[in-house]
């Protein structure tokens, strides 16, 4: 709740002039409530309600219901892939794929990705082999090649920030060894690689439909593949191995998507291109607001990628900006701008993987400078203008802020 009592500091409707105007030094925060990096997108309520009415009328809430089937069909059309299998979340989806392919031994993956993949490998008694990033912040194929052994069973690469990783180079490496390339497309809904929609590459791609993603179903996961046998296996194993009411084909778990989640997915899919356009406008507002600021690099995907623009990624160079990334993060957080370090500190430096991997200097340097800012379709251009003014002020007065914060 905003504090409007007489003793509360005055609201921040005046321009930033002095250090005492910053929340770090006692002023009222710029925003009364946190601004998150990826505030979830809420679909058109009427579209969602109409879908829920169908679910209520049918009393069919889960177990491969009509809305799940419809969402799978629509996703096949949109992503131009033969098989879409929806699940309860992306981590469960990847687990089903790993199990279905019978992977054993070592799996190469980037350290600069969400921790879920490394954890999953660990829990499945596979060995995660963390690899370096390239200049594009993505898994470096040359580093992968250097870390391959006779025990390497697969590569799981991530399309970080919705941009495609170097699929051709990674696929060539996998083809040489006869192993599977799996792609973590959690960030990448709607993106393209060489003109083709992401979702159609590797042995399978896995999307997250978590609420913070560009396209979401509150919670959910999606496997896309051209392998009909793999898709059939996933359909069985997401539902305890059942192929009929009392017929079990194999071991399986409960990784099903419910009808309520599918309703959210369908409603969001209908509005996805509008959301993408809104997120792109937000990206443009940041590009203008931060233009020319020394020591701050904004990552801008090329137009042919058709990136979903859900992530606003900056890199802070302490020498050029005047303060390091963590000092800027502290300043922003105090103002209720909940910027985030990603994927800090890197998978290879997080328990339980810590100590089982050599140092990865390029990944570690990247983890020290990446800062994500509140963005996506649910952000507003006014918020962006205020955040950019704040960041410009921080850069202009960096030496004084550093000294005062130290004191
Ligand atoms: C790159 C990446 N991979 C995997 C996941 C896991 O997705 P889920 O939460 O749907 O299991 C996430 C979630 O944030 C992610 O960002």
TrEMBL record:
SUPFAM superfamilies: PLP-dependent transferases. It is an enzyme of class 2 (transferase). Its EC number is 2.6.1.-. The keyword DNA-binding does not apply. It comes from the Bacteria. Keywords: Aminotransferase, Plasmid, Pyridoxal phosphate, Transferase. One of its GO terms (molecular function) is transaminase activity. CDD domains: AHBA_syn (cd00616). The keyword Transferase applies. Belongs to the DegT/DnrJ/EryC1 family. This is DegT/DnrJ/EryC1/StrS family aminotransferase. It comes from Tropicibacter oceani.
């Amino acid at each position: 709740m905003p504090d409007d009592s007489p003793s509360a500091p005055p609201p921040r409707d005046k321009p930033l002039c002095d250090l005492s105007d910053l929340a770090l030094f006692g002023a009222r925060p710029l925003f009364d409530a946190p601004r998150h990096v990826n505030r979830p997108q809420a679909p058109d309520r009427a579209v969602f309600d109409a879908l829920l009415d169908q679910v209520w009328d049918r009393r069919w809430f889960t177990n491969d219901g009509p809305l799940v089937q419809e969402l799978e069909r629509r996703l096949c059309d949109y992503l131009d892939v033969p098989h879409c299998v929806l699940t309860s979340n992306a981590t469960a989806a990847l687990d089903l794929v790993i199990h279905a392919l019978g992977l054993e031994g070592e799996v190469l993956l980037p350290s600069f990705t969400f921790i879920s993949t490394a954890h999953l490998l660990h829990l499945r008694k596979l060995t995660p082999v963390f690899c370096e990033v390239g200049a594009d912040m993505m898994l470096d194929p040359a580093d992968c090649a250097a870390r391959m052994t006779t025990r390497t069973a697969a590569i799981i690469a991530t399309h970080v920030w919705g941009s495609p990783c170097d699929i051709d180079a990674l696929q060539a490496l996998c083809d040489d060894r006869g192993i599977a390339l799996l792609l973590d497309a959690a960030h990448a809904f709607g993106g393209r690689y060489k003109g083709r929609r992401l979702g159609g590459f590797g042995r399978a791609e896995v999307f997250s439909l978590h609420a913070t993603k560009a396209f979401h179903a509150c919670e959910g996961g999606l496997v896309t593949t051209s392998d009909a046998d793999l898709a059939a296996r996933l359909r069985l194993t997401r539902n305890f191995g059942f192929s009929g009411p009392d017929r079990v084909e194999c071991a399986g778990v409960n990784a099903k998507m419910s009808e309520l989640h599918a309703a959210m997915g369908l409603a969001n899919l209908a509005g996805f291109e509008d959301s993408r356009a809104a997120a792109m406008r937000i990206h443009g507002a940041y590009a203008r607001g931060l233009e020319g600021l020394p020591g701050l690099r904004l990552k801008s995907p090329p137009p042919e990628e058709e990136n979903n623009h859900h992530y606003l990624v900056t890199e802070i160079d302490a020498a050029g900006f005047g303060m390091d990334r963590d000092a800027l993060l502290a300043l922003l957080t105090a103002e209720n701008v909940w910027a985030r370090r990603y994927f800090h500190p890197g998978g290879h430096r997080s328990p339980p993987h810590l100590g089982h991997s050599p140092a990865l200097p390029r990944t570690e340097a990247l983890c020290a400078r990446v800062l994500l800012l509140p963005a996506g379709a649910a952000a507003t251009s006014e918020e962006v203008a205020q955040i950019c003014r704040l960041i410009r002020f921080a850069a202009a007065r960096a030496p004084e802020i550093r000294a005062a914060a130290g004191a």
